[in-house]
Amino acid sequence: MRYGFWMPVFGGWLRNVADEGMEASWAYVRRLALDAERWGYDLTLIAELNLNDIKGVDAPALDAWSTAAALAAVTSRLELMVAVRPNFHHPALFAKAAANIDRIAGGRLSLNVVSSWWADEARQYGLEFDRHDDRYARTAEWLEVVEGLWTQPRFSFSGRFYRTDEAICAPGPEARPVIYAGGESEAARQMIARQCDAYVMHGDPPEVIAARVADLSARREELGRPPLAFGMAAYAIVRDSEAEAKAELARITAVRDLPPGYANFDQWLSGTQLERELKLQEYAVSNRGLRPGLVGTPEQLKERIAEYEHAGVDLLLLQMSPQSEEMHRFAAQVMGTA
Predict the structure, then answer these.
(1) Contact 173, 202 (CB under 8 A)
(2) pTM above 0.85, yes or no
(3) In whole angstroms, how far apart are CA 236 and each of 95, 288, 290?
(4) Which residues sit opposite 200 in a β-bridge?
C-alpha cells in the first residue's frame, strides 16, 4: 500500500470543528510536506478550489498550483498530485506551466483531473460550467491536448472546445505525469478507462470498492490498455484503544452550532435516528471519508487496510485532524515508518 495525504489547503477537513489547529498557510503546508517525507508518506494530494468547501466560502483557501510549484522546490521525494479542473485552465498553457513545475520537482508531478462540480464557483469567477456529460467531453479533449503537447514536438488540434495550431511545449515534463481521475457516472468511467492511468475513489466499504475496481479493470482490459492503479480517500483515526477512537469519532461528528459549511442541515438530517447518525457522519467529513471505517487501534486499522489491498486499492489518500499530529501517529503506529 502507498500512503498519501490531502494537503489541508482549506485549513482542515471537519465541517463542525471550527479551529483544527492547521491554518491555511504556506508556512503550515511547507512544514507538513517536509515532515511527511521524513515520516515515510509517498504522496500529497493538493485540491483545487477557489472557494472553501469545508469551512465556508468566505474562509481562506490556498491556491493549488502556486502551492504545488513552491512545494516542488522545497521537497525531494513526495509525489505531488495536484487537482486540475479543465474549465479553469486552457490546456496548451496549462501543459507548459505544469511541465515547468514537473522539472522543478524532478519528475514528481502528477495530475488529479476533476471535471468541475461546483456551478456557483464557476459563476463567481466568470468561467464556463458545462452540463454533466459535457464536462467529461471537455475533459477528454483537454487531456488530448495536454498529452499531445507533452509528447509531440508540435501539436495541432481542432475540437469542440479547444484548438491549437502547431503549438510547442519545450521543455516538456521530465517524466510524463501520471493522470489520476475519479467519478462514478458512465461518462466518467468511460473517459478514465480510455485516457487516465489511475482511478481515485471516494471512501466506501471494501466490497463496494472491489466492484468498482473490477469494473474499471474490465473496461481497461477491453481497450487493450495497461492496468489502472486504484486510490481511495479515507479519514483515519488511530488510538491505543477502540474506546478512545470511538470517542474521537463522536467528537468530530457532534454538531453544536451549525458552521458555514452546512447548508439546509435540517433537511440533511431528516429520517430515522440511524439515518440521521449516518448522514451526520457523511457530511462531517468530506469525500465520504468515514465510510472506509479506518477508526480504531493500530491493529484494527492494519486489518482494515489489508481488506482494501485485497479489494485492489494500492493508494490511500488520507485526511486527519489535526493533520500533522495525527499523520505522525499514523506513520508510527500503522505504517511503522516514523
Answers:
(1) no
(2) yes
(3) 34, 12, 8
(4) 231
User: Which pLDDT value is given to residue 268?
Assistant: 46
The class of domain 2-335 in CATH terms is alpha beta
Q: Are 173 and 98 in contact (CB under 8 A)?
A: yes
262, 286 contact by CB (below 8 A) = no
Q: What is the pLDDT of residues 270-300, one digit of tens each?
A: 554 545 555 666 778 989 999 999 999 999 9
**150-172 in b/e burial notation, b at 16+ Cβ within 10 A?**
beeeebebeeebbebeebebeeb
Peptide bond into 205 cis (omega under 30): no
Which residue, 109, 182, 209, is CA-closest to 150?
109
Inter-axis angle of helices 206-222 and 186-195, to 10 degrees?
60
Q: CA 262 → CA 17, 274, 294, distances in Å?
A: 12, 20, 24
Say how far residue 119 (Cα) sits from the centre of its chain: 19
Residue range 139-144: mean pLDDT, rounded: 96
Q: How far is CA 148 from CA 73, 176, 231, in A?
A: 26, 11, 26
User: What's the grid cell of residue 176?
Assistant: 510524463
**All three cell numbers of 295:** 477508526
What's the chain's Rg over C-alpha atoms? 20
